[in-house]
Amino acid sequence: MNYNNCDFVIFGAKGDLSKRKLIPALYKLDKKKILHKNTKIIGVGRANWKKKEFLKIIKTSLKKFLKEKIKEKVWNTFKNRFSFCNLNVNDTKKFFKLKKKLDITKIIINYFAIPSNLYHNICKGLYRYNLNLKNSKIVLEKPIGNCLKTSNKINKNIGKYFKESQIFRIDHYLGKDTIINLLYLRFSNTILYNNWNKKHIDHVQITIAEEIGIEGRFKYFNKTGQMKDMVQNHILQILSIITMKEPKKINSKNIRKEKIKILKSLYFIKENEIEKKTVIGQYSHGKINNKKVSSYMSENFEKKNTNTETFVAIRIDIHNDRWKGVPFYIRTGKRLKKKCSKIVIVFKNNIPKTFNNFKNSKTNKLIIQLEPNEKIYLNFLNKVPSLKQKCELKKFKMKFTYSKNFKKKSIPESYEKLLLDCMLGDQSLFVHIDEVKQSWKWIDNIVNIWKKVSKKPELYVSGSWGPYLSKKMIEKDGRKWI
Ligand code: BG6
After folding, report:
1. 3-state secondary structure at position 6
2. Which domain covers residue 303, as residue numbers?
3. Average pLDDT of the chain?
4. Which of the chain's termini has less CB crowding within 10 Å, N or C?
5. Is the omega angle on the peptide bond into residue 143 within 30 degrees of 0, that is, cis?
6. Residue 18's CATH number
7. What is the reported pLDDT for 10?
8. How many angstroms does the Cα of residue 228 sit away from the middle of ligand 1?
9. Are 325 and 201 in contact, with CB atoms under 8 Å apart?
10. Which residue of 177, 206, 234 sits with most ligand 1 atoms within 8 Å of its CB, as the best mutation to test the pocket?
11. For residue 152, is it within any domain?
12. Within a domain: residue 153?
């Protein structure tokens, strides 16, 4: 069977995710000649569209979200792959309509680009018409549920119809090239591999700052908050990758096994530590890039007070041999000063006493800028040239940037990578059910304490780096955000 000769079904074809991410990624794969000539894309939705209307939506989405000009030649091939199936997913009796459009001898990828409360029904519909065959896969978007209980329920229901090897749980951060690189960076460089532990590392910072607000998603976001929108998935995944032990082999079984071990070693924050170790915030109005932006509350059509957080900072501890005693400070928020995802590894000052009396202690920092302006730099000290007896040291940066060093290579979009891996059947960059369970356990613990102690978010000005208490949280430990 040709791996990429597949029928690709998008449930929720007219939704935001489909337009913004899936369609552009599929177009790019087609442009790179990765899609098989017989691959078909079937949009599923309640609209009563003819093919022509559907194609109009596809083209408009590409124009808006592709970030490059549409090539007529590519479009002419691409557009012929599409068809539309009018189907209400709650009406499982009607799934025969979908079956008619599929070639069941091919690989069938069912992408669930819709809320997770509908997953069960889709699975039932597919099962009803024997569409859960060995060669069919399902791709699930996060968040799966809203807590451990609801997530378990969804996963259990799906598991009645599909095996774990057929289930591809997406966390789009795992498809980002700079995040995939973390594994290679850590394990292919002796200098990092040998110093990557509590003996040499003082602490680690993970920042995922966004400029955008909730982009009209109040209904979704107000139930979710930044903790479940970004920490439960993206941040815990990044944390697992930068702290896991080397996998025995580079394959899904071994990579996921090591990540699960980390998630199981996360320290559960106690009620009496919640104020010290966690901070939540909500954006008020302000300015970003010199443009006025409004507050979270003004996007609140319910007009009731809401304590939903748009910013989270947490001190995370990992209780295993390698990391016990090393704090991991994470922060993520919407409407912050600028878009920036980065990891900072601050090394300990394990140097001979004689050399320890210079300024700039804890100088060695490895800064991995995940996006934008992807780059890696290492801070180090160097003697300033002079004839003086007393030496002066200065801080410098060794810098590597993607734009200069990979001039001819563009960084692939995460969805391109993930869709391709799904066609290939490689689950390494997809989340295992045990990872989902562990992350929810850890998140639920904190969210429940927040509820119990009625924790309120601190308002922060849009365009700032978040609440004052986030700065305080790390400063109390004698450190500061970088
Ligand atoms: C999504 C969240 O998973 O990730 C969004 O639901 C968030 O709220 C987005 O804005 C951030 O992704 P990226 O790739 O733009 O950093």
Report:
1. strand
2. 174-475
3. 94
4. N
5. yes
6. 3.40.50.720
7. 97
8. 12
9. no
10. 234
11. no
12. no
CB 87 within 8 A of CB 97: yes
pLDDT interval class at 351 (50, 70, 90): confident
Q: What spacing in Å lies between the alpha carbon of 349 and ligand 1's midpoint?
A: 36
Q: Are residues 242 and 368 in the same domain?
A: yes
**Protein residue closest via CA to atom 9 of ligand 1:** 230
Tell whether 137 and 180 lie within a shared domain.
no
Residue 230 CA to ligand 1 centre (angstroms): 7
171 lines ligand 1 (CB under 6 A): no
| Dist CA 462 CA 117 (whole Å) | 33
**Which residues make Cβ contacts (< 8 Å) with residue 80, sequence separation at least 6?**
none
Question: Has residue 264 been placed in a domain?
Answer: yes
* Distance from residue 176's CA to the centre of ligand 1 (Å): 12
What's the pTM value of the predicted model, to 2 decimals? 0.95
d(CA 284, CA 358): 43
Whether residue 301 is predicted with pLDDT greater than 80 in this model: the reply is no
Establish whether residue 317 lines the binding site of ligand 1, counting it when its CB lies within 6 angstroms of any ligand atom: no
Q: 302: how many CB neighbours lie within 10 A of its CB?
A: 9
C-beta 229 within 6 A of ligand 1: yes
Banded model confidence at residue 361, pLDDT cuts 50, 70, 90: low
- Domain assignment present for residue 163? The answer is no
Q: Which residues are designated catalytic?
A: 234
Query: Measured in angstroms, how far is the CA atom of residue 283 from the centroid of ligand 1?
Result: 17
pLDDT digit string (tens) for 32-64? 999 999 999 999 999 888 899 999 999 999 999
Confidence tier at 1 by pLDDT (50, 70, 90): very low
Q: Does 405 share its domain with 467? A: yes
- The residue whose CA is least distant from atom 5 of ligand 1 is 229
Ligand 1 atom closest to residue 414's alpha carbon, by position in its atom list:
14
Per the document, the length of the chain is: 482
Count of structural domains within the chain:
2
